[in-house]
Amino acid sequence: MRKQKLFVWILVPWLLLMVAGNFIFRDISRRNFEAFSRKTAERELREQAQFLEWRYEVLGEVEFIEMLGMFREALGNRVTLIDAAGQVKYDSHEDYRLMENHGGRPEVVEAVRESRPGINVRLSSTVNVEMIYLARPVYGEDGSLRLLIRVAAPFRNIEEQIARYLRQTTWSFAFILILLILLAYYMSRFISKPLEDIRVGAEKIAGGSYDLRLQPRGAVEMEKVAESFNHMSSHIRNDIERLEKLERIRRDFVANVSHELKTPITTIQGYSETLLDSWTGDEGQRAFLKTVLKNAKRMNAIINDLIELAKLERDGGEMPKRETVMLRFILEQAAENFREAAAAKSISVEIRGDEGMEALINPPLMEQALGNIIDNAVKYSGEGGRVLVDYSRADGEISIRISDRGVGIPEEAIPRIFERFYRVDKGRSRKEGGTGLGLAICKHIIQVHGGDIEVKSRPGEGTTFTVRLPDQN
Length: 473
Fold this sequence. Notes:
Blueprint: H1 6-19, H2 26-59, H3 61-70, H4 72-75, E1 78-83, E2 88-91, H5 106-114, E3 118-123, E4 130-139, E5 145-154, H6 158-166, H7 173-206, H8 220-277, H9 283-314, E6 323-326, H10 327-336, H11 339-344, E7 348-352, E8 358-361, H12 363-379, E9 386-394, E10 397-404, H13 426-432, H14 438-448, E11 452-458, E12 462-470
Parallel strand pairs: 7-9
Antiparallel strand pairs: 1-2, 1-5, 3-4, 4-5, 6-8, 9-10, 10-12, 11-12
Helix pairs in contact: 1-6, 1-7, 2-3, 2-6, 7-8, 8-9, 9-14, 10-12, 12-14
């Protein structure tokens, strides 16, 4: 038996449904259908453009263009790549080398000017069909425009469709209703099963089952969707395996280098301290020894932090042994390590919260994480400042807020402060003795506890770190 295209099964009940309408609703139907069709088309184009941008970032330009060629029919819509100068670099339906500069196309102009997707509906001068175009700009890490991904789909004549529907009013209402019910039942059975297979498959892939393969079934379009799904699953698996391999290599390299450097750096530090303790010579040479010792201590601190990070990453996010402890005690211990530094700057460190509150945590790790935040709060607060540590329990989670009235963090720097070795003010960070790894370690520890961390800051007014942990008591 010849399989019908999915379009046929959708079109027939849609026609019958429209015939059942009354002429009174003609104008309303026309406006609503036109608005709905355009909105749906725009949403689908946005989602496809966003997906293609993600694949571009993952694969790179060359492999991305190869992928477009391989999945041209599966993508369905027309895809065009346009560089920052307006030159066409790829087109799924035409020879891009023969196409004129697209820098003046309305959707391209809007996308470049507004730094967001630009949309336009017009008659295509290339394929001579009315199309809806969406151009999505893609920017590099430096903020410069790398290229635009443009997707386009035919914009069907809504007026003709409605007129065709309304001409079918010779059918009786009863017959239409009965037929519509029968067709709706059949379509639900025919369509829902392969869609359900795709939904279950997507959930399994999201859970890590990248070897999953769908069995093509149903209409031709459904079979193509299943095949495309299987191709996507294979690409995702290969990409993830490659990324995991690179990540393992990076972790092993950092861990090995850190361990190899620790012994000589510790030796340099020890000899420098010994020489300084017994030095009776020239003061200028003594200053050189102090510089050597200072930098050796800083290198040792960096190496210790790298080893700690490598240990956290090696554990793969698994939670170390936890125990129920008084949260107040952990905060007091974390703050105590920095009270001397705070006192030297006349900074008060205040802790507020229920003294009897308990939390299921790994005490040494949590003390280290919270201590890193308090350390930063003290370092970047001015003379006579205040660091406030406030904690509470609500809605199944424990919140710990650490606030200061220090120099603050620029808004554009906040998304990067948890990156290793990132410093907002490089000169000041080194002067304060920071390694650039404290907040990275902090975030790892919070995550292995199943929590998250949030930062709010205004330059010149201060910073607030909020740690949220699941309440498991």
